[in-house]
């Protein structure tokens, strides 16, 4: 059986529009129920306000916080003064302090509570700049060293996945990369081939294109050098093709467009 639709009078809406300003959702609900003898819940009031475009000036996220509030603003301030301003304390200490205020929380709730209230403790998961490690200058105990030694890297150890200079691989973009120096310097093969075959040193702004569109075909006859400006015009005017001869025509057209643009300036 369908639930009967609630009817709100014009008087209720006028009163609500005035009363809601600056109030929490829970407070608005209680005031409305007391004034008109209704039994609305916060979720009903939320729908009523939304349907009639009545705003309170209090953000929806803050309404949720009010509905699920465990502590009072006064208790929050005491916690903030004790831990945030001093910069000292731990989750366990905050938990014990809250107990003295009559609030019971698990450690997980304490962490969430501190995060919501933007209360920072002096607890970090990393060494802060200028800090001194507790074991600085101390030797590893013999019994600990004996347990760690079997899994330690030996001097001169070479990882099993090490690639020697000259090795090739294909990156996620489909280009062939060649290892040119240790420990992990890699360059695109088409750039290496161009410089080796032409004797020309490429600039960082130079592009080496594949005339047939195949990134694995690094034969010098399939390569062409273009500038950043020319590449922009090739991309803008869709002048790249799978056919090498058509791509050459596209590069020539891009150079003409570049020259025309420079002349017009």
Low-confidence stretches at least 5 residues in length (pLDDT < 50)?
none
Shape: flat
Q: From N to C, what is the helix and strand string?
A: HHHHHHHHEEEHEEHH
Strand order of the largest sheet: 1-2-3
The number of helical runs is 11
Short description:
It is built from eleven helices and five strands; from the N terminus they run ααααααααβββαββαα. The chain has helices at 10-19, 25-36, 42-51, 60-67, 73-84, 91-100, 107-116, 142-148, 189-198, 228-236, 244-264, and strands at 168-170, 176-181, 185-188, 207-210, 223-226.
Annotation keywords:
flat, 11 helices, mainly alpha, 265 residues, three-stranded antiparallel sheet
Helices and strands in order, then pairings?
Blueprint: H1 10-19, H2 25-36, H3 42-51, H4 60-67, H5 73-84, H6 91-100, H7 107-116, H8 142-148, E1 168-170, E2 176-181, E3 185-188, H9 189-198, E4 207-210, E5 223-226, H10 228-236, H11 244-264
Antiparallel strand pairs: 1-2, 2-3, 4-5
Helix pairs in contact: 10-11
């Amino acid at each position: 059986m369908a639930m009967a639709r609630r009817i709100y009078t014009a008087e209720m809406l006028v009163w609500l529009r005035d009363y809601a300003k600056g109030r929490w959702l829970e407070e608005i609900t209680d005031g409305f129920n007391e004034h008109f003898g209704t039994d609305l819940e916060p979720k009903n009031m939320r729908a009523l306000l939304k349907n009639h475009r009545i705003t309170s000036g209090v953000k929806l996220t803050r309404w949720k916080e009010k509905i699920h509030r465990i502590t009072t603003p006064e208790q929050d301030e005491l916690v903030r003064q004790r831990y945030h301003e001093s910069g000292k304390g731990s989750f366990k200490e905050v938990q014990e302090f809250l107990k003295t205020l009559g609030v019971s929380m698990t450690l997980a709730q304490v962490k969430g509570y501190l995060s919501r209230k933007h209360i920072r403790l002096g607890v970090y998961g990393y060494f802060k700049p200028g800090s001194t490690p507790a074991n600085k200058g101390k030797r590893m105990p013999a019994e600990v060293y004996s347990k760690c030694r079997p899994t330690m890297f030996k001097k001169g150890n070479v990882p099993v996945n090490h690639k020697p200079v000259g090795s090739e691989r294909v990156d996620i973009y489909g280009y062939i990369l060649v290892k040119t120096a240790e420990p992990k310097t890699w360059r695109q093969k088409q750039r290496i081939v161009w410089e080796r075959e032409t004797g020309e040193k490429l600039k960082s702004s130079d592009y080496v294109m594949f005339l047939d569109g195949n990134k694995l075909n690094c034969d010098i006859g399939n390569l062409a050098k273009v500038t950043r400006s020319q590449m922009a015009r090739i991309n803008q005017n869709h002048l790249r093709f799978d056919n090498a001869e058509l791509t050459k025509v596209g590069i020539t057209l891009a150079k003409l467009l570049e020259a025309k643009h420079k002349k017009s300036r």
